[in-house]
Amino acid sequence: MASGQAKDLKRSIQALKAHWKSGAPKNMRTTFADDPKRFSRYSLQLDDLLLDWSKCLVNDDTLSLLADLAKAASVEARRDAMFAGKPINNTEGRAVLHVALRNRSGKPIKVDGEDVMPGIKEVLDRMAAFSNGLRSGAIKGAKNKPITDVVNIGIGGSDLGPAMATLAMSPYHDGPKLHFVSNIDGAHIADTLAGLDPATTLIIIASKTFTTIETMTNARTARKWIADALGEKAVGQHFAAVSTALDKVDAFGIPADRIFGFWDWVGGRYSIWSAIGLPLMIAIGPEDFGRFLDGAHAMDEHFRKAALPKNLPMMLGLVGYWHRAISGYTSRAVIPYDQRLSRLPAYLQQLDMESNGKGVTVDGKPVSGPTGPVVWGEPGTNGQHAFFQLLHQGTDTIPVEFIVAAKGHEPHLDNQHEMLLANCLAQSEALMKGRTLEEAKAQLAAKDLPKSEVKRIAPHRVFTGNRPSITIVHDKLDPYALGRLIALYEHRVFVEAQLFGINAFDQWGVELGKELATELLPVVSGEVKPKDKDASTQGLVAHLRKRRGK
Ligand code: F6P
Q1: Taking the model in full, what pTM does it have?
Q2: How far apart are the CA of 360 and the centre of ligand 1, in A?
Q3: Structural domain includes residue 457
Q4: Domain range spanning residue 452?
């Protein structure tokens, strides 16, 4: 980074820190009371998608200082470099082009001078033909029976995306039933296969590298399950694979017409739009899968073209940065008020934490401030009866991101949807407003409690409030809205990464544990004595071996 840019960045960050201490709003209640236009000033809409950050401690000065920072960090230039196929993943020397996978513009996107769009179209067409064959029953298993169940074996980005989206899109399912196996724990595959008939089951092995130990182990277990039941020759008819390592898939015995490729410029956690989305396409059909891509493309176009103050991913990223790096909040809760988005927090955990959980800058220097927050969550209203106590009265401030649809998919249960909406709004209002000691006392006094009891109980019923939240509303969770929502979050992670000054697209931090697990396997199984291990690891190995009777 040029020294001039480094100075601008430092100056912008210092200005933001000073503003947090003095100029930024201190009290949301009074800020709302003073400014009746606060909602319209601090919310944005793209078609039916609304992003409301008015319940955060920001004002016009905050946003203008954040915009200065974005400029100093060259966020827009970096964004353009990503869309142009430049190798912005500098530690792996790769382009970052998940946006090409949903490029519906008909325009070319080039990597090293070559248009990637024809290859993307070819894979999408093959996925569609394969999905349609399964969905219509034209593609059958070895016993000439139609496929009723599809098991996706993958982990991380090769599982979370399709698993989350397939659940989210359940009102659109009209194909075979989908199942997902990820964990190396044999319980996962055992429980999944237990209810299935090998003769009517297709297994998809999804792995970008085709080396991931969990996936390859589960794949071998599934292969044996098929071969034992139907014979070795049946394997080809009951497997498909999604990978960038086509040679390795071939060696597993999967026929070429059932191998769906993708490219090294697609990161695992950004791969749902590629052939990794095959399970989703099988469940909802190619047309709805196309709508899913359309939604993401609409967000891409918006992100690419909208000026900063009107740009949803930019604003979400800037406010996210404000919370993490300037206000010092260490985590963010994502609470979809949508049962079908119950896997979204886990999906966003990988997207955000694997991207922005970094300690060095793009230049390999230690970062000078915080990077990505802990991301966690559960659907509302369930979370309200579990961890919301801490969100409201705990000693940490945790910004919450509420996601909700104006309309549900169950018109006959619209009263329940209204209750869901009321709960979602109530939580953000309570976090913002809180309840003062006077209010708590007045409420208790109205219940005719003795004065001493009012005094004793009231402090426990105080809510400090002033706790930030962001609300995201779309009309209905359909394929288009889901694609658009995920793309919004992807670009937000991108924006925050540029502000942190890190590379969001590698994940070296997962390597060490993998290496040590490989080293420890023969130790745990007893083939090798633990040596050069710390006392804790040695003690644990000895305990486990004893308890396992080995
Ligand atoms: O855990 C690291 C990781 O490489 C993720 O980034 C990735 O999504 C996951 O493992 C699965 O990798 P693969 O698709 O190569 O099996």
Answers
A1: 0.97
A2: 21
A3: yes
A4: 434-466
